[in-house]
Task: structure prediction
Amino acid sequence: MKKMITRRNFLAAAGVVAAAGVLTACGGSSSSAAASGAASTAGAAASGDTIKVGVLGPLTGDVSVYGQAVVNGATLRLKQANEEGGINGKQIEIISMDEQGDPTQAVTCFTKMCDQGITALVGDVTTAPTLAVAAESADYNMPMVTASATAESVTYDAETDTVNGNVFRTTFTDPFQGVKMADYACQKLGYTKAAVIFKKGADYNEGLAENFVKEFEAQGGTIVDQESYSDGDVDFKTQLTSILGKGPETVFCPNYYQEVGQILAQAESIGLTVPFLGGDGWDGLEGYATAEQLKDSYFCANYAKGASADFESAYKAEYGEDYPNGFAPLGYDAATTVLYGIQAAEDAGLEAGSDEYKQAVIDAIAGGTIEGLTGTFTFDEHHDPVKSTAILTYIDGKPELKEMF
Result:
């Protein structure tokens, strides 16, 4: 039987020191979006006609492109639930805050949300703040669904075989992505020689790279070169020249799209024109690379554009623009997951915010089947989703679904 982690052990395992941050000011502000003209927080709590859900992410700062997409996707889903009559007649009150991409701010925001009476949380977005919030949430046993934090330790500590009992995710993990892309490179594309270039010191990049290497070699392939760079680097020609000299058939580049665009341009400039492969951090890359640089490249993602016309139309109607990247549908699915759990707790007649209510939400999610934009999925014993992966390639410089794999 898997162990359930305590807050003290989680903090030690994650290396997170967040408790000191609860007295600092929280980035952003709290807001209610149940409906226009909604009652004040105190009045809503007293009436019992609303159910408070927190939506947390970086709305400003370096990673706001991801946070805004997740928050928008989640908020859209919760608003739709209200328009459909809420949950057993109760409206969802959305309490949204900006944690600015900072773990300490994220904990501050989370504790403020708890003070305001949330019953579940959609969030956080990137790995470090999510780990900090997950550690803090253990004391509250707060149902928490992250749309996009991919580090395995968000939901499960492999060293101690411990599941973080209140935490779930709707995206796949770093190890999963690395393995999937290695399998696809070998089994579908027929590559036998690959190189890897990744940013060192970052859980996401290192996690994908490490697992790609292990799986590619397990499939009988050869890793001819592994190159890394540091945060803030903008010149990758030394690493790429080394890769060029080793003669790979493909290069796995598990980095975020801004850096990938620079790497592809510099690879082209030195004559390294083999196809590149990537993970979900490539989502949005088409604006940073040419069609020629993207030719014959593939990456894995949770969602392929065009998979849900209803969602894409609703997003544009709500926000006045196309959904920006795959983090928006993941945010939508995280909110759908939270709603699934809340429905079960409401059907049981429990008091919103009580210990029994929160546990009922957690239990329902753990045993549920979620009909999401990114697929129909259940959760495994580590609280990670069990679903297929979308493999995308580029046609005339734009990502298109190749197949589900």
Summary: The domain at 50-172+307-388 is CATH 3.40.50.2300 (Rossmann fold). The chain has 13 helices and 18 strands.
